[in-house]
Structure formats: C-alpha cells, structure tokens
Amino acid sequence: MSGLQREQNASAALFERELELTTAEQAVRRLCGHVTEGRNRLGGLLLYSGEAGLGKTALLTEVRRFAAEVCRCTVLFARGSESARSVPFHVVRQLLQPALAPLAPAARQELLSGWYDIAGPALGISPPSGTMQDPQGVRDGIDWLVTQLALKGEPVVLVIDDAHWADAESLSWLTAFTVRLREMPLLVVLAYRPDELPDHTPAFRDLVASRAARPVELRALTPEAVAGLTHAAFGGRPDPAFCREVWAVTAGNPYEAVELIAKAQDRNLKPIEESAPLLRDLGATARGSGLVARLERLGPAVTRFAWAAAVLGTEISPILAANLAGMGPAQAAQCADRLREARILAGAVDLEFVHPLIATAVYSAIPPAARTAMHGQAAWAVAEAGHGSAAASRHLLEVHPDHDSDLVEKLRAAAREHLAVGAPDAARRCLERALHEPPPEEERAAVLYELACTALLTSPSATVNHLRTALGLPHLTDDLRIDATYRLSQAYAHNNQLQEAARVVAEQAERTPPGPGRMRLQAAHFLWRGIQVEEEDSHGRSRQMSELADDLPGRDNSERAMLALRAFDGVIRGEDALAVADRVDRALLDGELAPGMGWTNTEWGFEIPSVLGISCAYTDRLDQAQRLFRGAVRAFEIAGWSGAHLSFAHDFLGLVHRRRGDLCEAERSLREGLRLASRLGPGLPMHWDGFCLLIETLLSRGRVDEAQAIADEHSFHAPYSPAIVLPDAACLAGRLLLARGRTKEAIVELEAAGRRLDERGRNNVLWAPWAFDLADAILPEDPERARALADQAVQHGYRFGTDTAIGESLRRAAAVHEPEEALRRLDQAVTHLRRSPCKFEFAAALVDHGVALRRAGRPAEAADRLREGLDLARECSADGLVTTAQAELDAGAFAKAEPRV
What we know:
The chain is mostly helical. Among the domains are: about 5-215, P-loop containing nucleotide triphosphate hydrolases (Rossmann fold, 3-Layer(aba) Sandwich), CATH 3.40.50.300; about 225-285; about 405-595 and about 615-625, Serine Threonine Protein Phosphatase 5, Tetratricopeptide repeat (Alpha Horseshoe); about 800-900, Tetratricopeptide repeat domain (Serine Threonine Protein Phosphatase 5, Tetratricopeptide repeat, Alpha Horseshoe), CATH 1.25.40.10. It has 45 helices and 7 strands. The strands form 2 sheets. Strands 2-3-4-1-5 form a 5-stranded parallel beta sheet, sandwiched between helices. Helix 8 links the parallel strand 3 (about 155-160) and strand 4 (about 185-190). Helix 14 crosses helix 18, helix 15 crosses helix 16 and helix 38 runs antiparallel to helix 39 (about 770-780). The longest helix is centred in the first third of the chain and has 18 residues, at about 135-150. The radius of gyration is 35 Å and the shape is elongated. Residues about 1-10 and about 895-900 have low confidence and may be disordered.
C-alpha cells in the first residue's frame, strides 16, 4: 500500500504516521514470514509511546486491520481502563475471552490441558475453586494458553491500548511473557502514555525503558498536517490563518484537532480568517471544564446518565447505567442517543466513552459525595446482576468508611475470590479497606489474619506486622490464635528471622493447654530452632525433642509432625539410621503422607513432608524419598504452585538423584529448580539449597569450573544462609576451594565449619563431610592430625550405620592412611557400598581401590576394580571419575596381565 493510498483510506488521526505504520507493517510481515520463502516467522514486541490524544488508538486500529485483513493473523485486542485498574486480570480476559468464547467447554479444557482449573478462574471461563491459587501458577497457565493459540493456528498479534492503565496482574503476566516472544509466531503491540506508567509493576517500567524495547514515540502533528485535516474536512481551500489557528489551539494534538474541526462544522463556521478567533473558545469545550459545561447543557438527566457511565468505567452495560442513574430503559436510551450525538459516548450493545480523556473529565466532574454514593450503588447493582463480590469490589473500595459490617463481609468475600484466581494484591486491597471501615471488634483479629495470609509469600515483613497485631487483640479464638502463631513463625522464617520464629511459637505454646494445638506449636518451635546454623544449645533442644517424640506412636498429625522433625534431627546429628527410619515410618501412614499433611496443606506447610523426604534420602531409602518428592512435584503442579514450592520440590528431587548417583538427572532437576526460583527474584533464601546441591553435583561430575560459575552467579560466599542448607554451605565452600587448589583458604573455611558443627553435635558425614576434606588438605603438613580427623569421622559413619555412610567414610579415610591400611579400608568400603543404592560413591570406591591395588603391585585385581568402576562412573555421568579410571587403566597396561582364576 502506497503512502498516498494509506493516507486516503486511513482515518484523519493517521496523518503523519508513515514511520509508525511502516514499523508496524514490517513487524507483522516478519511475523507472517514462511520457511518456503526463505524466511522464518519472527515474533517480537512493538511499543508505541505518546501523550493522550496523539492517535495511539487510531494507529493500533490500523495495525489490527492490516494484521487481520492483509496478513490473515489472529488479532487479540484489549484496552486498559483507568476505572478498572483494580480489577485483576481485566486486560487478560479482554484479550483471551473472545478466542475462547466460540469453543465448547470440552474444547476449552483440552486447549488449556492441566492448566484449566488453575488459570480458568483468572480467565473468567470457570468458577473459582475456593482455594488460594499461586499467582505464578496462574501466569504459567496463561503462558500455556497463549502459546497454544500461537502455535496451533495463524500467527497471533496481541494488541493492548492504554497499557499504562492495565491491571497489575495482567501487566505482570505480560511483562514476564515478553521474554518468550522470539520463540513463537506472536507479536505484541502496546501503546501507553509515558508519564502515566504504573507504580504497581516496576518490571513493566523497566521493560519499556530498556534499550532493547526502543518505543516508537508519537509526536504532535505539524501545522501542515493539521492544514491537511482541515482541507479534508471542509473541502475547497480553507484560509491558512484558520488552519494555523486550529493547529495553535490544539497544539497539534490529533484527537483535539479532529474534535475542534467537527465542532466548527457543527456550528457552521466558515473556514476563513474571520472565524479563527472563535476556535479557541470552541476548543475549550473538548476537554476539562469546557467539556463538563457542554455536558451540563444537555440537561440533568443526560448528565446523570453520563456520570453513571463514568462510574461503571468500561464495557458499560446500558441496563446497569440506567439503574445507577435511577431511570427507566426508555429514558436511558434517549440519554445514550444524546451522548452519542455529542460525541461523548459510542457503542450500541455496550457503551464506551469516545476517548479516555472524556471519561476522565466526566468522572472528575462528579461531586465527591455523589461519586461515592454512586460507587456504593454500583457495587450493589453489579452484585445483583450476578457478577460476584470480586467484580463489585472495585466500587466498594471507593465507598467512604462508615462502620458498615455488611460492607466488611462483602470485602472479605471479594478477597477470597481474588485469592482463588491468583490475585493476592487485589485481596490485600480489599482487606485493607475492610480494616478502615472498620470491622466489628470481634472480627478485627480475623480480618488481620486473612490480610496477613495474602502477603505470606510476597511480603513476610507485612505478614509479621499484621499477625503480631492480631495476636495482641481480644476476641481471638484458640484455633485462630494457634493458626496465626504458626503463620507468624513461617513469616519470620521466610524473612530469615529464625530466632524470632522459634521464640514466638514457644511463647504461645506455654499458654496453650496440652493437646494437638500445643504440640503443633512445639513442633514449629523445634523446626525453626533445628534448622538454624548458629543454634544455641543444640544438644538441649535435641534432648527435649527426644523426650517428647521418641515414644510417640503417631496417632495424629501433631505427633507425626514431631516424629518427622525428630527423624530429621537424628539425620543431621548422625544418629542411628535405623532409629531414624523407625521415626519416619511412624510419621507416615502406611508409607504415605497422612491426610492433612500433604504437600499443599496450609495447616502444616511443606516443611514437614520435606524433612521426611530428606531423612529418607540420607538413610538409603531412596525409593521412598523419590516417591515423596515426585509426589511433591505432581501436587504443586496440579495445584498450580509453580513458584517457590515447585522450586523446592525440584531441588529435593535433585537431592535424591544425586544420592542415587544419577548425576545428569540431578543436574537437570536442580537447574529447573533454580530456573523456577529465579522468576521470583534474585538473592532469596530458597536459592540456597538449589545452587548448593548443584555445585556439589557438578563437583561430583568433575566440572570444577562450572561449579565455580554457579557459585559466582549466586554470590556463594560468607555470610552463608542462616538456615541449614543441603549440603552444609560452609563445608561445600571449603570443598570448592580445595578443588580449585586454594588449599590455605579451604583449611580456614573447613576449620571454622568443623568447630561450628562439632559444638552442635551435627556429625552426619554425608551431609557435612568437612573432616575428610580438611584431612586431605592438611595431610602434607600434619599427617597425624589428618588421620585422627578421618578416623573420628569414620566412627560417626559407623554410628549412623548405613552402608553408604560407612562405606564412604572408609573410602575417604583411606586417602590419608598408609598403603596397607588404605587397601584394607578400601576393600571394606567396596563391600559396604556394593550394598548401597548410591552408585557414585560405589564407583568412586571401586576406582580408588583399583588405583591402590595397582600401586600395591596387584594388577589383575586392580584391572577388575577399575573396569567395574569405569562402567559405573560412565553410568553416573561422573566425567572426572571416568577420566581418572581410564587414565589408570591406560597407565597400567592391564591388557597384558594374566586374568584371575
């Protein structure tokens, strides 16, 4: 299409928009490229930036037309709304509901697959389940849907006008989704006002400000372009002075120029120099107070109807507007006609304002008292129309506080609906507004508790404040007090305040009578104390746990939780693994998690099932650990909890693979866990287990440089996490230093780790093998101490008693002993590790034994060990061990050796 043809066919607002339209055409054509033509389909992001009235809407309309009619794309369109910014997923629903509406329910379910129940409520195609949805899971479900639409049909162009007014939930999804645009045939086109970017989504601000985005900035029209508009409207040759005044009055704003020309035509002004002075007063009626005055001249009924439309905002139902304006259908229809004639409203089935500037001016003109009253009426009308509490909540938020307990209940109901669609921030706004009403005193604590729950994962500090306030109020039932205390301890823990977490549950446990509630608080106390790296009186806490838990049969979930925590304590302390396994069995019900203690249960949290799985992983019960953590992944995916919870599940599943010796699978799972965690922001506590396990796995594979790269990426250095990490962070740091040849630094790190662990009786040689690494480091300078350290650690391995712990202890200790003693220990290590499910440790023992046998002049036996170790090391993907075994085989010329009989 030539520039002249486009100018003739496009609306007047597209004057001087050649560059902007060409940019859009090029982006759409890249999207629609075909491999047969030697071009790939390339998606992307196209941004248009401009102040109000510069023609962004007209430009996007032309982009939509070109994409749909010329390039046969599927075009999805939405518009942000100043009045609907508080409605979660408002823009997402506008975009996607038209694509879903023609489909039968079964087809929608098939398209969304497993995401239907998770994202369906946010999309408005299925009712909320009543349970709290994870916002990240909802965003992932929307990702899935948009991806399916883009890959299964024609290329998709997704267009959003007034993106600066998009709701936070839609904008958060869109911002995160843009990183995937190059992966699929999908083009996103956004238009926004640069000075009105929202504060609620800083990531969107960063996106549009980045150098990669490079928005196309719309400018005001030149005098020549405005003259062209005037010529096109009036015909003939308007006086240059008249055209120049149209430009001066409107400052080249396309919307205002078009409106001014239209009003001049309505007044039958002649486009001559003598009419130019009249244009300034006429232009004032297109905006602000002038527009309001023009509206008032249409009469009180029309004004009242316009007010009702402004309060309702977008997609205005004529019936709702009539009810809100207090008039019948016939009068409402007349008022709507008058407003269309005045170019204030447009539309037939649903009404909308001709331009957002008009909507803003009309809404601002409503007297504050009348506006508040109308919002209250609108909330009632929306609820009566069957749209639900969540839809009514945006109006309830605008009503003045008035001690209305019914309004409090409506806001609490709206908050529950918002949580059920994955919009905790919207729920928070409702509950904060409910507190300002305020609620009846007997309900205030409950509202604070609900408010705290909305912020538990996103703002632990806010959760702490709300729950502390709630616990200080009267009218708190015992059950709610216990729940609030448990949640408060979780919030402290998520905020890395483990001592506070332990203290608050201990205080509340003291005032709670014996029973399940008290034991629940005691369990939380032992949990938060037991995972502290710098715990005071670790021995005393362990004795208390032993006295309380060792004889519990596991009759209810409080007892099962206590048994689970005692089992984990036994693992960390390196106690008898058989006793640990017995406690695990009593904490489970027929080998499975008991009802009420599942992964997504909010009463206990995921920590209790996690420590059970970890205990199984370190006591050679890898099949059971794998069942538990695979169950965690499934449970979190089904529930749509694809943020921190799913990240932890992949980390712990990676732990199982690492213990089993499936190093490649462990690495895959751990990288997936870190990928999920990275979406929630950098430097969070949840990263520690993931990257520490990944570093350990890479070291086991012999990939020291990659391990160091992960350490650098995640700032792995002191101070370490205040919570226990798998493996122990300081021990791992020492091992990494040792692997890089920085022996003196490694010794300092390992000495400090050893003192800390020894003082607290944490002697598990698999979780924290500091003694063996330190013995290796000091062997050249102090062989006697090195052997003493290693032998003490072997005793700890025997105390724990698993084949893996004993075999690995013997193998590591052999490295610091004389050859004859080393051979004996390595032979024993191989015997134990052959019975172990941990293949990597077995492979390492075989190779170490083979090396020792070759040096002892026993080539045939050495060859057997090395070949078996080599095969197993390959199976484990332990590249470094493979290299060692192969080098030893090559060096020994074993092919010439006589085979053993």
